[in-house]
Amino acid sequence: MTDCLFCRIAAGALPAHKLYEDDHILAFLDLHPIRPGHALVIPKAHHVWFEDLPPDLATRVTTCAQQLARRMKALYGVPRVAMFYTGIHVPHAHAHVVPMQDQHDVTSAAYLAEGPGVFSAPPQLPAEEMVAIAAALRPAFS
Ligand SMILES: [Zn+2]
Question: In what residue span(s) does the HIT domain sit (predicted)?
Answer without folding.
Answer: 5-108
